[in-house]
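Researcher: I'd like a candidate sequence for this fold, 190 residues long. If you have to choose between options at a position, lean toward the conservative one.
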């Protein structure tokens, strides 16, 4: 099987997975075209015909995508089943589909409800005990234990907060504050 065939299968699977998350019994069909679809602007990677439930993707564009981009394009097009425009509903649906269909790479631990993904890898590759437990924070000084989850955090990430998505509306400063204030703690209930 060649690289293009693998990308084609990955795109079709991503469309099916996104459709399943939207509880659509019939996912859109995928049409891979040799030339840009006559109904597209020509520079689009893909587009959906919502009433026909067909997603057209130009072969040349699909060949240039990596796996993350394939999932992102699939989520974007399937989100058009919620809203045809690129409005807030579409952006929210796309974000939820991208998050819902994300699969952690090897060595990453992700919590999905009560199911811990990758826990077996954490036993094999334990994280450092003297490093802040917050994602990508590498601080090693002034670590304190969270009284709810028992993990160690720097003073910036110590305050617990309920796990949630940020509001996608508003200023960038609000998003930065959400990102940098505390840590999402599954054991904390406010």
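Model: Candidate sequence:
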């Amino acid at each position: 099987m060649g690289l293009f065939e693998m990308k084609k299968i990955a795109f079709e699977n991503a469309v099916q997975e996104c459709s399943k998350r939207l509880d659509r019994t019939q996912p859109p069909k995928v049409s891979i075209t040799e030339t840009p679809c006559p109904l597209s602007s020509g520079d689009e990677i893909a587009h959906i015909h919502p009433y026909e439930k067909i997603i057209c993707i130009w072969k040349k564009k699909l060949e240039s995508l990596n796996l993350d981009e394939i999932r992102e394009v699939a989520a974007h097009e399937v989100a058009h089943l919620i809203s045809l425009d690129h409005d807030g509903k579409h952006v929210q649906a796309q974000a939820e589909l991208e998050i819902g269909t994300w699969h952690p790479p090897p060595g990453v631990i992700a919590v999905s409800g009560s199911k811990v993904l990758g826990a077996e890898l954490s036993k094999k590759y334990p994280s450092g005990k003297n490093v802040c437990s917050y994602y990508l924070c590498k601080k090693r000084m002034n670590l304190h234990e969270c009284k709810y989850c028992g993990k160690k955090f720097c003073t910036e990430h110590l305050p617990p907060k309920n796990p949630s998505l940020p509001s996608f509306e508003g200023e960038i400063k609000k998003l930065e504050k959400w990102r940098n204030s505390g840590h999402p703690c599954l054991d904390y209930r406010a």
